[in-house]
Amino acid sequence: SQQGEEDPQALSIQEGENATMNCSYKTSINNLQWYRQNSGRGLVHLILIRSNEREKHSGRLRVTLDTSKKSSSLLITASRAADTASYFCATDYSGNTPLVFGKGTRLSVIA
Amino acid sequence: DVKVTQSSRYLVKRTGEKVFLECVQDMDHENMFWYRQDPGLGLRLIYFSYDVKMKEKGDIPEGYSVSREKKERFSLILESASTNQTSMYLCASSLRDRRGGYTFGSGTRLTVV
């Protein structure tokens, strides 16, 4: 399976702290995307980083990509209770195959 | 507000029934996808479609079929529901070049008893 792997599986932090989640994948990619899922709902697209990019920002989100290590990280700064959700990475391996999703990291932000 | 709409949030069906899960998108997206999500297994791709009347098998197509007669609608069919098909089913769509990523529906939690 080409499924990516998120690490850790679960993360619990206090409000105001930063949260870092990691994703590793297996073969060369076109881009890597991060999604968020609130409990029992669909996934929401957060950010896309292309294979020729090393870092990208969107609000309190910062994504890095290291293609030599085949890994990416998602940093959420100054976390809030509303950030409590599961976060998934998804890899785009080629122009014609569907995204492959990891198993996700469950983030709990405690107020 | 653009969206993907799944016809039911919760569904309970009996073993052996034929089950239809409907998904409609209003974004004129070419690509549509059906995933199932189970604890510890993440999202697994069942079927996808890149155009009307086209369909491709994903990683776990057994026991499922799909129909895409119109661009905006992608239906997932469980020919004879079984208890191991109890799951959360997620529909998604995207542009042909996938810029902007996937847009997901809210999901259908199906229980087969």
Please tell me about this protein's structure.
The complex is a heterodimer of chains A (111) and B (113). In chain A, 0% of the residues lie in helices and 55% in strands. Chain A is an all-beta fold and 111 residues long. In chain A, strands 2, 4, 5, 9, 10 and 11 form a six-stranded mixed sheet that branches. In chain A, a hairpin with a 7-residue loop joins β9 and β10 (100-101). By secondary structure, chain B is mainly beta. In chain B, strands 2, 5, 6, 7, 10, 11 and 12 form a seven-stranded mixed sheet that branches. A three-stranded antiparallel sheet of chain B has the order 3-9-8, with no helix packed on it. Chain B has a two-stranded antiparallel ribbon with strand order 1-4.
Features of this protein?
heterodimer, A: 111 residues, mainly beta, 6-stranded mixed beta sheet, 5-stranded antiparallel beta sheet, 11 strands, 55% strand, globular, B: 113 residues, 7-stranded mixed beta sheet, 3-stranded antiparallel beta sheet
List the helices and strands and how they pair.
The complex is a heterodimer of chains A (111) and B (113).
Chain A lengths: L4 E3 L2 E5 L4 E6 L6 E7 L5 E8 L4 E4 L2 E6 L4 E6 L8 E8 L7 E2 L3 E6 L1
Chain B lengths: L3 E3 L3 E4 L5 E3 L1 E3 L5 E8 L3 E8 L6 E2 L6 E7 L2 E6 L8 E8 L8 E2 L3 E5 L1
Parallel strand pairs in B: 2-12
Antiparallel strand pairs in B: 1-4, 3-9, 5-6, 5-10, 6-7, 8-9, 10-11, 10-12
